[in-house]
Amino acid sequence: MKRDSSGKTLADYPRPSVAVDTAVLTVAPGGTLEVLLVRREGARQKDAWALPGTFLHEGERLADAVRRSLEQKAGLRETRTPRQLHVFDDPGRDDRGRVLSVAHVVVLPWDVVAAVVEARPDDVRLRPVTDVGRLRFDHPEIIERAVDEIRADHRERPDPERLLAEPFTLPQLRRVHEAVAGRSLQPDSFRRRMTPHLRDTGETQEGAVGRPAVLYVRVNGRRPGDATERDRR
Amino acid sequence: MKRDSSGKTLADYPRPSVAVDTAVLTVAPGGTLEVLLVRREGARQKDAWALPGTFLHEGERLADAVRRSLEQKAGLRETRTPRQLHVFDDPGRDDRGRVLSVAHVVVLPWDVVAAVVEARPDDVRLRPVTDVGRLRFDHPEIIERAVDEIRADHRERPDPERLLAEPFTLPQLRRVHEAVAGRSLQPDSFRRRMTPHLRDTGETQEGAVGRPAVLYVRVNGRRPGDATERDRR
DNA sequence: GTAATAGTGTCTATGAGACACTATGCG
DNA sequence: CGCATAGTGTCTCATAGACACTATTAC
């Protein structure tokens, strides 16, 4: 057993439990930004919903605990690298004892999230981030931080969460960004901001009413897992 | 003992040790941004320095653990509300066992930091953030995140960390911001950015060579502890 | 007066918003 | 053709940088 400078091992220090709680965000076809909620286990009241979470297992990384919680609590298998938001450490925040919770955000395409909601409609639901209902603990603040985080990432870069499959049109891209931003965006200044990060494929979208839109792919494209809070500054 | 939905108590889950590590930043009179380092306890090599840190005690909040570590490791008594930066969770990051570390940043006025360095020069030192020397673990990344964090806070607001006592002149303020930014700033555009957040006291600074500078105080002044990562967005 | 520092008026480049205008498909 | 949607040229406004210019003190 390793000992530190006071001759103590790590087991001699009291250790809190560590949990992860995750805001899974997605863009609904209607153009709203929605968050995934799961029914609270063992809840006394009906309609008791919460963000999916779990306790960190031995030797497990935080990101892996997030992935495990999403699979266990919501049946989500395809997830991307979660991003940390904040550690909540209020000693009274869990009545079972001292629990630190590391809040995370994960953004997923609509189909992936909609499929699990359809599979388990009694246990899993989606709510617009502007109307999440009554939630436990500090979960509304986690959602607020999650939304702030991904809004900041969407300001300069086209679909940094890769919600759209390539190639896509500028109007498609704009609709995703409008859902994230929670407001409509000017087509012209949106185009100016985004085209430096896009490459024209020369193809156009077929079969729609109106003038066909040009199809683009991302350039300088970072993979979703690369994006961290720090990249923004 | 409280039990959860699986009939387990919290003690049935393995718990990691939780530590805090803190980058204490200050602005030296020479105009450099510096970080406080402490000599590693029980270090085998000489010149083994690290950011001050400690293990979280039972029932203790993270911010209180930060304050305690700064007093114990560096003799710093006057500290302000620390801000969280990131949780480092690499399972191999501490050879004594599984340790999560929550990185923080604290910004303090020069006199406060200089006093403790003078009191314990063998155990405590300051280094420019651009040249920290060889550090253990993930400490250089913590410093990088700390600097990014406070640079972002200084972009729009005059001296958000209250390093200057009121009233102060615009050139004094600019010198602080230049140290934080790590580069010189245009006097005129700096003035334009800052004056909306300042109130002219009508007084001027006496006794210096050259035209006397007008003294200002902050308006809309949040207290240091109020500022969080989220306020920036 | 000169030296030194504080403060400002103004030009220019950049980028966002607004908005009207053009372009190109479908029926 | 008309309708619907995509895309652009251009004006205006706000802001940052650059830089020369003025202002006010000590000596």
Question: In a few lines, what is going on in this structure?
Answer:
Chain A has 233 residues and is α+β, with helices and mostly antiparallel strands. Chain A has helices spanning 62-74, 110-119, 139-156, 170-181, 187-194, and strands spanning 17-27, 33-39, 49-50, 53-55, 83-88, 99-107, 124-128, 168-169, 198-204, 214-218.
Summarize the structure in words:
Two copies of one chain form a homodimer. The first copy, chain A, is of the alpha+beta class and 233 residues long. Helix content of chain A is 26%, strand content 24%. In chain A, strands 1, 2, 3, 4, 5, 6 and 7 form a seven-stranded mixed β-sheet that branches. Residues 221-233 of chain A have low confidence and may be disordered. The structure holds a DNA duplex (27 and 27 nucleotides).
Secondary structure class of chain A reads alpha+beta
User: How many individual helices of chain A?
Assistant: 5
Instruction: List the helices and strands of chain A in order.
Output: EEEEHEEHEHEHHEE
Strand content of chain A: 15-25%
Work out the radius of gyration of chain A: 20 Å
Low-confidence stretches of chain A: 221-233
N-C termini distance of chain A: 42 Å
- Overall body shape of chain A: elongated
Give a short account of the largest sheet of chain A: 7 strands, mixed
Q: Give the mean pLDDT of chain A.
A: 87
Q: In percent, how helical is the residue content of chain A?
A: 25-40%
The count of β-strands of chain A is 10
